Every structure is written in C-alpha cells, then in structure tokens.
Amino acid sequence: MKKTSHEITPDHQERAVLVSLVTQELKREETYDPDYSLAELIRLAETANVEVLGTMTQNKEYADSKWFIGKGKAQELKELLEEKGANTAIFDQELSGAQVRNLEQFLDVKIIDRTQLILDIFAGRAKTREGIIQVELAQLSYLLPRLSGHGKNLSRLGGGIGTRGPGESKLETDRRHIRDRISELKRQLQEVVKHRTLHRERRKKTGVFQVALVGYTNAGKSTLLRQLTQADVYVENQLFATLDPTSRSLKLPSGLEIVLTDTVGFIQNLPHDLVAAFRATLEEANEADLILHVVDSSTEMMTIQMKVVDEVLEELGAHGKDRITVFNKIDLCTPEQLEMLMTEGDYLRISAYREEDLGRLIDALEKHLMGDSRTYRIPADKGDIISLVYRVGEVLENEVDGSDMLFKVRVNNKEFDKIGYMLAAYDSARAPQGENRGETSEHV
Questions:
Q1: 352 is in an annotated binding site
Q2: Any binding-site annotation on 263?
Q3: pLDDT at residue 6 tops 60
Q4: Mean pLDDT, the chain, as a whole number?
C-alpha cells in the first residue's frame, strides 16, 4: 500500500519533550494557569499520537526574540532531548518563523508549537468537505508567514504532527502558489457558507427552534446529543473527538420539534486562524435561538474553561444569546465539587447517562422555548387562525363562548406574535367595549 504523507511508521513515531514559557504577560491573563495549560498540552500531544517523554518550564519576563526560552535554557533543552531520545520539541506557546528556524538548527529536532499541534489534530478529525477546507485554510494561513522557519520541519520525519492536512508537497511550494491555494479555499468555503446559510433560512421559515450545544472540548456535548436524540455520533474521552458539526431533531413532549446542533469544542488559546476558518460552523451558535453551554463539572479547571467559552462566544457575537448552563458529569464529581455548582436560575446539574437527568433537561428546554400560557378569543369561523394556534402552541383548554372560541395555549415564544398579528387584521369593533379579541389580559 502506498504510504501517504501523514502516515506515521514505527520508525517515525513522534517522541517529544514539551516546553512551556511562562511570561509576566501570561500571568496577568485571567484564564491562564501554567500548570493546567501544560497538562492540557500533554493531552493534546497524546491525542496526536505523540509519546511524551518529559516536560520543561521556563519563567521569563518576556519571550526571547531569537531563542524564545533563551539561549541557556535552549542548551538545557538540547541536553534533555538527547537524554530522553526525543525527536520533537513541542512548545505550549506560538512561535515565530525565525524562532522555529533557530531552535530547529540548534536542537536538530522537529519544532512544533501549540497552534500547529491543534491544527494538526483538526486535520486528522475533519471528515466533511467543509471541515477539510476549513482546516487546510487555517493551516496554510498559519504557515504562510512562517515558511522560512519550517524547511527541515516538513521533511525531517516524512510526515507526522505538523504536516497532516495540506501535506508536504503543498507546503514546500512557493508563497505565490500557497496564496493562490488560500484564495481558492476561501472561494470554496464561501460556497459552503452560502449553502449553510440557505439551510438556516429554511429552518427559520419553518419556525423550527435551533439549539446549539457549545462548550470546552471533552465536556460531553456529543454524548449529550447522542443520548437525547439517539444520534449516531462519535463519542470518545479525548480532546476534539468530533470536529464537524452534527444537527439532529428532537421532539419535545408538547410536540414542538427543535434542532440540536453539536459544535466544535473550544479550548484555551484556540488559534485565531482556526476561529476565522471555522466561523461559518461556529456561527451555528450565533444563529441559535438558545445555547446549551455544556460544562465538565468534574474538572478542577471548570471555572477557567467556562470563561474560555464565554470569551469565544463574545468574539462570535453570541455572548448575549439566551443560554442554559448544563453542569455535566456530576456522577464523576466529589461532594465538594457538587456543592460549588450553581442551582438557581438557568443552571442544571446532570449526568448525560441518567434518564431522569435527561428528562429534566428536556423539561427545561420546553419551559425556555415555550412561553407562558395565554388565553385567546378567536371567532369560531376563523379556521386559519385556529389552525395557527394548534400549529405554534400547545392547546391546554378550549371552549365555545357564543360565536367565539376561547383557547388557553402554551405558546411558542418565537411564534406567539403571529396570532396577535392575524387577529389584529379583523375588525376590533366586533368585540365588546374593552375586550381584546386577540390575546386577553389573562396570563397563567
């Protein structure tokens, strides 16, 4: 069988030392924790099938422009790489092309940074045409200004992390060719965006509610989607187990049908090129009527992960959307962790594997998406309005009152105005003085 550029043979297995530089600027960031960030880098490396042989941390006021971690620390790293028999150094922060080139020549190993590692994982996860286009666009946009620093990187091990997706042949061509490729990918992505936008418009016209599942990677979004809708989606306890968005229908007890969409997981320092390339996909959250923020409540870094998700949603313009926060994985929590979880307001504590918890979540969705019950007086001969009432709401009671019908309805929040608009078109003089033929003053 012909070996593709991204296959890794046993001789080419990545064996890495992970390196983190903690600067004063990073320490000032509210969502940054150096130990957690390095631990997360280990998980990212393992997700990319890298054997992690050791770690190194350097504290400096700011990054060294030439060696990133400083010449002295680079010498220590060289000795550690030789001692461990490592062939790769993975940095927890983003490197410039010059820094990659200098470190590569000095250390004589492949140099990868956090951004490139995440992009590489995405390249391995993308399955749909849209996902593949988005990942390649993000990789090329990231690598274009760094080409001079990746010469050996692309040929050192004949594949492996940092070269999946576009592959070596594309990255070794000149900048003009890569710019042409980026332009072509953007054109293809625009077509995909138009197609996705068309689907969104169709869903809006049908009045179907859209609910987006968002959250930090590995929070359990895909598991929740599968448990709620019996969707055939890939579920695994790993970072970025699913990449391409999946939408499935869910019928609520009232008969209201909604569409649940599982979006790509967020992560600390999510590469800007990736956010830009995946904007069309991430905008599912922006277009949704309701956001389900799924949180891994069993992790000690829950607060930081929640803040990261808030930051990405704000960047997408979806921060002000109606939201229910779902504290997932409570079956894995300690009693102390459970006590810290909020219960008042739009918060739920669940395990995606408990039927009773899923039932409570479905009830919360229905309560949020369906309005309070309202009473409408409708002329009995207005079959179109009566039909609309049954279509957009759940009729709780109805009775005849002379030539009119009285309906007590739990009305779809998104659609209830339609009933009032249609009733307003009729002559209000038919109603007795002071009586509103549309929505009455009774709200239950």
A1: yes
A2: yes
A3: no
A4: 79
